[in-house]
Design brief:
The chain is about 25% helix and about 35% strand. By secondary structure, it is an alpha+beta fold. Helix 3 (about 105-120) links the parallel strand 5 and strand 6. The longest helix is centred in the middle third of the chain and has 16 residues, at about 105-120. The N and C termini lie far apart (about 35 Å).
Length: about 190
């Protein structure tokens, strides 16, 4: 796997982030990877205005994963980290479809967990995943996440989140307790 560089996004990254997230989940481009939601939802996953709202939110950061290319740094992955009381919410996770299944997602997730644990001193990560995404839930379980049995409704009628192709969509909350690292516990 090529060397990744991580940084937090700024407003100038919003368009590239929106494009990356759309490519990972919606439309024909998303079918090049395994994270597609194209069979469950039509329409957009997020737009530039939505990304800008996340970037401008003082409780949130968008983590970017970039690799070196002939034309400079290439955006290959991203995730939102939102500080909540006692945990970090992990969302807007995307890896460029043609690069999925090569370890990039694991690397982005590990970096997000490191930031939550070491920089923000939080001991838990939570996320919500569409329940019909069994293969994605299993991927998170292999990385230590557990199903909580807590469900959230899908925002039917709000096209900012897509146009559902079925009527039984909902989210399940997953969580992972973070073990303090030796570096973060040092005096």
């Amino acid at each position: 796997m090529p060397t990744l560089h991580f940084r937090f996004a700024d407003e100038s990254d919003a368009s590239a982030i929106a494009d990356l997230v759309e490519s990972g989940y919606r439309g024909e481009r998303s079918r090049a990877g395994w994270t597609t939601e194209a069979d469950l939802l039509d329409g957009q996953r997020i737009d530039v205005a939505g990304v800008l709202a996340v970037i401008r939110d003082p409780a949130s950061r968008v983590l970017l994963a970039e690799r070196d290319s002939e034309v400079g740094a290439e955006l290959v992955g991203c995730a939102q980290l939102e500080r909540k009381p006692g945990y970090v919410y992990f969302g807007m996770f995307s890896v460029r479809p043609g690069l999925q299944n090569g370890g990039l997602g694991r690397a982005v997730l590990a970096e997000a967990e490191r930031i939550a644990r070491e920089a923000w001193a939080l001991r838990e990560v939570r996320m919500s995943v569409i329940t019909q995404r069994g293969e994605l839930i299993a991927w998170y379980e292999r990385r230590g996440y557990t199903r909580t049995g807590e469900y959230l409704p899908f925002p039917y009628g709000d096209e900012r989140f897509g146009k559902p192709r079925r009527e039984d969509l909902r989210f399940e909350v997953l969580r992972k307790r973070l073990v303090p690292s030796m570096a973060s516990d040092a005096p």
